[in-house]
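Let us work through a complete example step by step.
Step 1: write down the sequence.
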Amino acid sequence: MGYMIKNIYYDNTIIIYFSSHIISIMNILENWIFLSIFAAITFGLGDFIVVLSEKRKMDTFLLYIMYTIVVGIFSMLFVLGNKNTLMPQIKNFDSYHWGVIFLFSIFYFAAYMTHFKALRIAPNPGYSNALIMFHVIILTMMSYFYLDKPLNIRTVIGIIITMIGSYIIIVNAS
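Step 2: predict the structure and record it as tokens.
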């Protein structure tokens, strides 16, 4: 015997089978380690595309501008697809929210413009990305000092190792 959700009848055996897979997928999508690794892979692939486009004599700044337009379109489609959830929140934005969005946009615009330039002129694109990923240390330290997030000895050792590795990259790249 099936049951109805949102005017659609489902067979119990099919729902149990698919719901276990959906739950598995949803659990993965709630795992910060998986999401971070996925983001690292996608950033790496994106940077590789930028480097390849440079070899084809494509202007990386134009690539960035066009990329942000496409991302804007995808973002608008996402908002429209989730309008019941997102639109009430957007309607309640005040000047603080819009100020944060504007400031965030300025930082990301500056970061990506300098990122693309660094990728283009570095002896190896991986060198520039190693230094750009220094933002992890900045975020960790700011979270510790301003958001009262914990910082243990392993994290401090990781920061020191990262700084030493970045120094080695800079010295060997020169």
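Step 3: interpret the result. Residues 1-19 have pLDDT under 50 and may be disordered.
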